[in-house]
Design brief:
- Helix content is 73%, strand content 0%.
- It is built from 8 helices and no strands.
- Helix 3 runs antiparallel to helix 7 and helix 4 packs antiparallel against helix 8.
- The radius of gyration is 18 Å and the shape is globular.
């Protein structure tokens, strides 16, 4: 019998962990992770100075990041309980990714040909969100992994990926207060890839740190 099969069998035969307060603990973990990320950003790279003059693009970017976190949340919740079907949650993530790709293409097609690369890369430089979003996701990810260890998940890799994506979405909300680039193609491409990178890192860590 494979190790994963044995874990699934034990998960069905053993009493479920006490979940009376775990939803409140999850909410507190997400809020604490967001607060730590926001303070970290404020003391390290700072907030954008023209935020109030560009409130609509800022809110759109924050809303996009919050939507990514909101989609990852029900998937993570489902995976924290052993043996529960994922249902529509995987499909919702796939639809979100397809919408992001479509939005990026449409936005780039609306730019003048000579301006497309500038808009896509946010001025021609390396998309720093690929570094900062995973970095500022660390506090939330640590808290979620600690919480998950007490809830006996069985699908460790995908649980870790969902936790990473959720932490990445929370981090992206905080990071949007710093990011000076508002282009739709930039946000839908590089923010999405940064959150996907968080998911990949979470999958690796989840396989190791969530093992019974």
């Amino acid at each position: 019998m494979k190790t994963d099969d044995l874990i699934d069998l034990l998960a069905h035969d053993t009493p479920k962990p006490d979940r009376s307060h775990w939803r409140m603990r999850l909410a507190m973990t997400l809020l604490a992770g967001f607060a730590v990320a926001l303070v970290w950003i404020g003391f390290s790279i700072g907030f954008r100075h023209d935020m109030y003059g560009n409130m609509l693009p800022f809110l759109a970017k924050t809303g996009f990041s919050a939507a990514a976190a909101t989609l990852a949340l029900p998937l993570a919740l489902r995976l924290l309980a052993p043996g529960r079907p994922l249902g529509w949650r995987i499909a919702a993530v796939g639809i979100f990714l397809a919408i992001c790709a479509l939005a990026a293409v449409i936005a780039l097609m609306g730019e003048a040909p000579q301006e497309r690369m500038h808009a896509w890369f946010g001025g021609g430089r390396f998309p720093t969100c690929l570094f900062y979003i995973p970095m500022f996701a660390a506090p939330t990810a640590v808290g979620l992994l600690w919480l998950a260890r007490g809830l006996a998940p069985t699908r460790l890799t995908i649980t870790g990926a969902a936790i990473g994506a959720l932490a990445g979405g929370v981090s992206a909300v905080a990071y949007s207060a710093h990011c000076p680039i508002d282009s739709v193609s930039y946000v839908t491409t590089w923010y999405t890839l940064a959150i996907a990178l968080c998911a990949a890192l979470g999958a690796v860590l989840g396989q190791r740190l969530l093992r019974w």
